[in-house]
Amino acid sequence: MKKRLAVIWVKRDARLADNACFAEADKLGLEVLPFFCFEPSVLAATDTSDMHIHAQWQALKGLRQALRKIKADIVIAHGEIIGKLTKLHDQVPFSHLFAHEEIGNNITFQRDKAVAKWCLENGVEYREFPQSSVRRAGVNRDKLQQLWQSRIIDTKPLPIMKIRQGEDIRSMAAKTAFPKLPQFTFNRLWQPVSEADAHSTLSDFLNHRGCWYRGGISSPNTAFTAGSRLSVHLAWGTITTRQVWHAVRNRISNLEPDDSQSGRWKQSLNAFLSRLHWRDHFTQRLESEPDLEFRSLHPCYRDLRYENNEHLHSAWREGMTGYPMVDAVMRCLKATGFMNFRMRAMVVSFACHILHLDWRLIHPHLACVFRDYDPGIHLNQLQMQAGVVGMNVIRVYNPAKQLADWDSNCRFVKHWLPELKNHTAKQILNDEMPANYPARVVPFAERAKLMTNQLYAIRKSAEAREATKTVYLAHGSRKNEKLIRPKRPKRTPRPSSPTLFDSLEEDTNAE
Ligand SMILES: Cc1cc2nc3c(=O)[nH]c(=O)nc-3n(C[C@H](O)[C@H](O)[C@H](O)COP(=O)(O)OP(=O)(O)OC[C@H]3O[C@@H](n4cnc5c(N)ncnc54)[C@H](O)[C@@H]3O)c2cc1C
Known about the structure:
Residues 492-507 have low confidence and may be disordered. Strands 3-2-1-4-5 form a five-stranded parallel sheet, with helices on both faces. Helix 1 (20-27) links the parallel strand 1 and strand 2 (31-38). It has 22 helices and five strands. It is α/β, with parallel strands linked by helices. The protein folds into three domains: 3-129, 3-Layer(aba) Sandwich (Rossmann fold), CATH 3.40.50.620; 195-288, Alpha Horseshoe (Serine Threonine Protein Phosphatase 5, Tetratricopeptide repeat); 289-511, DNA Cyclobutane Dipyrimidine Photolyase, subunit A, domain 3, CATH 1.10.579.10. The protein has helices at 20-27, 40-43, 50-69, 81-91, 106-121, 144-153, 167-174, 195-207, 223-226, 231-236, 241-253, 262-288, 310-318, 324-336, 341-354, 359-369, 375-386, 399-406, 411-416, 425-429, 444-460, 462-475, and strands at 3-10, 31-38, 75-78, 94-100, 125-129. Bound molecules: flavin-adenine dinucleotide. Flavin-adenine dinucleotide binds at residues 217, 227-231, 234-235, 272, 275-276, 278-279, 282, 340-341, 344-345, 348, 370, 372-374, 377-378, 381-382, 385, 508.
């Protein structure tokens, strides 16, 4: 006989507030048992690292503490999910399994399908709830704004629900200790991840740091404080986009008009809100095209030739390329797990356009050093910065220019490259490097030309232009919609004029 019990399968959503699973259980009057499973197949995936395992471990610790305060608890298991669900079901035959829709890599995608099948075979009612505006199994691109409006803007975040959990279930859960996972290292420079930390980060951003967002997020010297730093929380689900969106709107409407900084605050918070929107835009792409992990969105760039030289790959991973800005970013990422958008884009552009490494080759390492790794954003950004989406301007970041523009006093590079400690900014900017710093592994300009020639040759072909239209209609941001409407030319274009799709740009690097 089944118990009217909903097992709440916690994945990337270790939080109590704005949690549709708890809300549904409350609505149906069900007893609940939160359940998390560290799965060996996920832990061993090439895009999983200690940074991620630790983030989940910390988030779960926070959730357990919060649950214990309200006299409830969570089961934390270690093993493949089907086996663990079967064991739990044998112990307590539960009637429902609730989870949030996860938009992850192929491993979690296949795993979710297996869980749905297991529920069907075991008479368990399985329900999945969205936690963003992304629609399962894809959606017509034109409907995305409606979903954002209805799920994020028009719906208030859910409050913390009353949790029904009987003493027998609570004591069974309380007995499950944190499993002993294969040894993982922990670095104190990693950003803490828990529901409580998410809210304090948001509050600190909205009341202190956020004023400097606009103008502050491009430099690696200021982005650590001027950026919201909410990415880890949004990625691991300790806060939702909806909670953040409503808190920001609330802050904007409460800005004092007499405050001399109010104009600056408003510009910064509006710039932040548009970035928040990009999350779902990119995640929807992965949901609609699960193959993005393995092949480029644009079909014509799938056979692009890369060298994939292991020596260059290793120099890039270790921050030993001889390009100080690239090396400092790669070493900083390894230590802290964080970097701002511009610098992430630069290291991808450098790897693909200058070192000629395939974006699929560099994907696992980057995923592993991003504590906020979120496959939907990550895979799309990798492809965009590699220039294989077809809708974007092909942008080759010059690390020397990025250094001069965003770290002109060389504070950042000197911090992360001890070899440069005794060098002046002038020497570094003039590329007068000490003997113990590696020489440049490849020349910049020639290598950039080789790759951009290849990319432009594809881009200009009739086949690629046709395919770009299809890609754009399915996935492009509608801000450029007018560009796909046929326009009567004012005068006959010269043969060398840029064509319609050369200017179809989806630039998420507004700063
Ligand atoms: C190659 C590459 C890979 C990336 N991989 C990830 C990733 O795995 N996880 C991740 O969260 N971000 C990723 N980003 C986007 C971006 O760099 C980070 O979200 C941002 O630097 C996090 O800092 P923040 O929270 O202070 O961001 P803020 O600027 O405060 O932005 C707020 C939130 O908006 C979202 N966001 C910001 N920029 C973007 C963007 N360009 N596209 C989509 N959503 C965005 C993030 O959720 C972020 O937390 C990647 C960017 C590049 C170029």
